[in-house]
Fold this sequence. Notes:
The structure holds 2 protein chains of 2 kinds.
Chain A: E1 5-7, E2 10-13, E3 19-24, E4 31-37, E5 43-50, E6 53-57, E7 65-68, E8 75-79, E9 88-95, E10 105-106, E11 110-114
Parallel strand pairs in A: 2-11
Antiparallel strand pairs in A: 1-3, 3-8, 4-5, 4-9, 5-6, 7-8, 9-10, 9-11
Chain B: E1 5-7, E2 10-14, E3 19-24, E4 31-37, E5 44-49, E6 55-58, E7 61-65, E8 71-76, E9 85-92, E10 99-101, E11 105-110
Parallel strand pairs in B: 2-11
Antiparallel strand pairs in B: 1-3, 3-8, 4-5, 4-9, 6-7, 7-8, 9-10, 9-11
Amino acid sequence: EPEVTQTPSHQVTQMGQEVILRCVPISNHLYFYWYRQILGQKVEFLVSFYNNEISEKSEIFDDQFSVERPDGSNFTLKIRSTKLEDSAMYFCASSETTLSTDTQYFGPGTRLTVL
Amino acid sequence: TQLLEQSPQFLSIQEGENLTVYCNSSSVFSSLQWYRQEPGEGPVLLVTVVTGGEVKKLKRLTFQFGDARKDSSLHITAAQPGDTGLYLCAGARDSNYQLIWGAGTKLIIKP
């Protein structure tokens, strides 16, 4: 069964460093998302992406964040200058459509630890 | 801000008992999805409910979407230790792409 994959599974970085989190969405999906989950808190939406453009972003997704589809299979989230509060699980998801009745499929997540 | 309130937050019961988890909102959702999440892993989809009043069954799990599409429930019959985990509900609206998440119900089934 097709699945969303994410690398790395765990990333440790120093505050102020740049990190790139990678995702390979399901191959026939056209819509991609990033969510994050701070330990013990709710899953929070960051950004959605379609046709090489951001479709929607939350207040969390400030100028320190960017997303890119560098090739036909990868979807990346870059944090330019990490802060301690960026420590969280980051989940990538994809869906075939943006119909609200469609399902978003999630990857296993990348645990980001900022020291 | 649109919220999804999930209850209970934590539930610990004996194997064989039945339980219900609730997901409530004052807002209408176009669909509601139930996920299960293991520690350190991503949410895994259990079911998507779309139509008001819809009932879906997945073995011993029964999911219902409220008639007004503002609430949903997950009922587990004869719970087993393998059902232990974090259950999350997430709602989608017509107007945007993001999922609105509940805080989750941590379920422990004791043998």
